[in-house]
Amino acid sequence: MAGLASRCFRRAPWVIALWLLALAGLVLAAQHAGAAYRDTVALPAADSTSAAELLPKGDTERVVITTTGTIDAARDQIEQLLRKLSDLDHVSQVVSPYAAPELVSADRRTAVIVVSFDAPADQLGPELAGELVETARTDNLTVGVSGQLAAMTVGAPNLGNAGIGLIAAAIVLLITFGSLTCVVLPVFTAAMSVGSALAVVVLLSHLLTVPKISTEIAALLGLGVGVDYALFVLTRYRQGLREGLPPGAALERAADTSGRSVVFAGVTVCVSLAGMFTVGMAFLNGIAITSAVSVGLTMLAALTLLPALLRLTGMRKLPRHSAPGRGWAGLARSVTRRPAPYAIGAVLVIAVLAAPALGLRLGVPGAGHDPPGSPTKVADTLLAEGFGPGANGQLVLVAERPDPVAADALREIVATRADVSPGPVLTVMPRTGPDDPATAELVGWLREVAGPGWHVGGAVAVQTDFSAAVTSRLPLFLAAVVAISVLLLAMVFRSVLIPLTAAVMNLLTAGATIGVVVAVFGGPIEPYLPVFLFAGLFGLSMDYEVFLISRIQEEWRRTGRTRTAIVDGLVSTGRTITAAALIMALVFAAFAFVDSRVVREAGVGLTVAVLLDAVVIRCLLVPAVMVRLGAANWWPSRRREHPAAPIPDARDKAGWIH
């Protein structure tokens, strides 16, 4: 790491120029290629997939209309709309509400036009989706569109809030480190790497199954860790300057210590994200790959672009108030002298936050959670008001070998729990909304009473099967991520207990994070969100674990006293860890206000995770547990623990503790 950083430092103009050219080239290529996101979830073994294979292959959309009077008074406008919809490309059939009474609400104020296409939605593409929604708009009528094609028009969340998060992070950097350079360099480094990563995500969408949400998740992780990684290297560089080293030597030592920690932390995040491959879904694989690309580029920027910027900005001396403050020494001594109360208090905080996780319910929220004003949200509202809460969660029962007699018998049974239409294919309308647990229970009940040869399909059935598929693979995923993290930490610290205790503490943090998300958002929670949060949390927490423990281990190797090493390590890293966590939390919190529910959930979850992990876990629980373990922390190291000595309170003339 030292050699790479040194070369980038000496060739600063070339390194900065290469980064700028790479960013410009990637952005231009992404703009030229355009995005090809795919939000489809492949479930080949699912019952809903079997049902879809027996149904017509074309997409079906519902255009929902409501009027201030009745649909009879607006017949001319509606019939004109019917003609326009019939003229769209790939439309095979348009069913008028005037020809099908079941498509008109009881008060005759709301009507549904069924538009059938000759191909699936993913083949029709977003351009036709936009034409459908635009065509459906009619003056003096409230119109919404429901279906897979209409869902493509729900735009990506506005990431403008990320800029607010970066501004807030910059203010924290300025207050904490008292230097404009310490503000500009981490923010600029993160912005360059994330900008490049987002362009790469667009290009990868042509090669992989990349869902639309990948852009937001890549930006979320990249901005958070990007500022952190740059800050870790910059902090160690400043420490070298404080000790009188020339800039080149200070940078080499920073790269050799904090730089290695950044590499390990970045690799751990990527490897933890790779654990999502154990779930076996291309949808999640796309999220994992694009997120890992974002983290990898931010790691590379911290090791190459940041050293070049340090040379260019001419940072040669320290600003005032650059040494660690007295408060961290007092906290460190207090925790190491009375570890039990701190450990108990930390565990109680985590337990309280984790309690709501017992009520976790996985599922894909319906269109009612789409952004306000979107065509799918409008359609969901109109359908619920005009036809009941289950109108936007219709299910279908389809037989492998149609039998009218068996269909009539099954229809009578199903009618006891839901509204059902006659015919060889039974259309079932639940009496509860798509997000209601009773609707998911209805799917299971239908599969039981229908028996072999019948299959249950529809959007809610697909969502239920998706949730079941993810849930069934969660144990393997959790075991893989925990095992990988433990092995990586064991390799770095040559210890057994340090990685094991870190894994336990990460599990505690994960439980508290999920608990807060459930408490704030209720249910259902997207099935892939706990997977992403768990993988991201395990990776991000390694930042602070490695940064703290590596410094403690340095001091232990120098002094041979664990308690003294803990105090010195916490004093040296405490301010940086908490400042980095606050900065990352501010960036994540900015995403909690976008108009996408899953991005808000991820923003809230990661905000809680980094603050809890940095403040409660790394600064309180980890030191308390390490004090209790003593020399066992470093087993199987053969070095003996030196007898405990009083912790010195050495201050220089300025009053700073070293």
Automatic annotation (TrEMBL):
The chain crosses the membrane at residues 159-177, 184-205, 217-235, 262-283, 289-310, 342-364, 474-493, 500-522, 528-549, 570-594, 606-631. Pfam families: MMPL. Residues 1-35 form the signal peptide. GO terms for cellular component: plasma membrane. It is a multi-pass membrane protein. It comes from the Bacteria. Belongs to the resistance-nodulation-cell division (RND) (TC 2.A.6) family. MmpL subfamily. Residues 187-312 form the SSD domain. PROSITE patterns: SSD. Keywords: Cell membrane, Membrane, Signal, Transmembrane, Transmembrane helix. It is found in: Cell membrane. This is RND superfamily putative drug exporter.
